[in-house]
């Protein structure tokens, strides 16, 4: 059973999306509908897929998604929007996809297919690190950043901070292919776990504040924009 919710303050859009999802024949589905972010948040229970309007009265889709993501790390959030310039919306929420209004049945069904595919096929990548605590295996998504400090390299993860037996330059080279980049000579950070960038401060998902040096700023912003654009393009392919 696939559990899907639609949240949109335009009744006609809400009803159209619901009708399209009801026509999806490949899997048994339950559908919930909400007319506002407040209503969704108040009644939220674990979902597989959430189609979420960005521009709503009251709490908008971006803020709603942040609250929902805190409750449910696995739900596939698909933004529905009137705007073509939505790259900034990818910050802080890990949106699975984007649909531009007015949408068609094929757009909705494509994203449902993609979400189901990820549910069955997505395997979290795990890497091994040689630390002072011994060999540890860490899920890439759980790594926030590496920091060179007091002649040691610290690896900040979701549950623990490890000391790594490697040079920060070697770690940067190793982690580049996994979407880690350098905002400052003392840091290598996960682009997946970037929440926002304000001036020369990089805000991470765990609340950490990472300095962005002027020297690294241009390349860092290029890497981040490329990463976000690739995520959006991947969500639109089909």
Automatic annotation (TrEMBL):
Transmembrane among keywords: no
Protein task: May play the central regulatory role in sporulation. It may be an element of the effector pathway responsible for the activation of sporulation genes in response to nutritional stress. Spo0A may act in concert with spo0H (a sigma factor) to control the expression of some genes that are critical to the sporulation process.
InterPro entries: CheY-like_superfamily, LytR-like, LytTR_DNA-bd_dom, Sig_transdc_resp-reg_receiver
A GO MF term: phosphorelay response regulator activity
This protein's name: Stage 0 sporulation protein A homolog
Modified residues (4-aspartylphosphate): 53
Superkingdom classification of source: Bacteria
Family annotation (Gene3D superfamilies): 3.40.50.2300, LytTr DNA-binding domain
SUPFAM superfamilies, per the entry: CheY-like
Originating species: Romboutsia lituseburensis DSM 797
Domain Response regulatory: 3-116
PANTHER family: STAGE 0 SPORULATION PROTEIN A HOMOLOG (PTHR37299:SF1), TRANSCRIPTIONAL REGULATOR-RELATED (PTHR37299)
DNA-binding is among the record's keywords: yes
Pfam families from the UniProt entry: LytTR (PF04397), Response_reg (PF00072)
Keywords in alphabetical order: DNA-binding, Phosphoprotein
HTH LytTR-type domain location: 127-226
């Amino acid at each position: 059973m696939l559990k899907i919710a639609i949240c949109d303050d335009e009744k006609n859009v809400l009803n159209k999306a619901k009708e399209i999802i009801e026509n999806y024949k490949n899997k048994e589905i339950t559908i919930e509908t909400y007319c506002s972010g407040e209503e969704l948040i108040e009644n939220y229970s674990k979902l597989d897929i959430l189609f979420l309007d960005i521009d709503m009265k009251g709490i908008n889709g971006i803020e709603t998604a942040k609250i929902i993501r805190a409750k449910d790390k696995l739900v596939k959030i698909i933004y529905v929007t009137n705007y073509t310039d939505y790259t900034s919306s990818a910050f802080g929420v890990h949106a699975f996809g984007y649909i531009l209004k007015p949408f068609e049945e094929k757009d909705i069904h494509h994203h449902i297919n993609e979400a189901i595919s990820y549910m069955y096929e997505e395997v979290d990548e795990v890497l091994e690190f040689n630390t002072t605590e011994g060999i540890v295996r860490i899920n890439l998504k759980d790594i926030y950043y590496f920091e060179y400090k007091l002649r040691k390299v610290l690896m900040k993860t979701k549950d623990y901070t490890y000391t790594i037996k490697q040079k920060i330059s070697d770690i940067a080279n190793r982690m580049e292919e996994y979407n880690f980049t350098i905002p400052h000579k003392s840091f290598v950070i996960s682009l997946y776990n970037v929440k926002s960038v304000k001036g020369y401060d990089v805000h991470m998902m765990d609340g950490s504040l990472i300095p962005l040096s002027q020297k690294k700023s241009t390349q860092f912003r290029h890497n981040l924009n490329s990463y976000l654009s690739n995520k959006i393009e991947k969500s639109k392919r089909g």
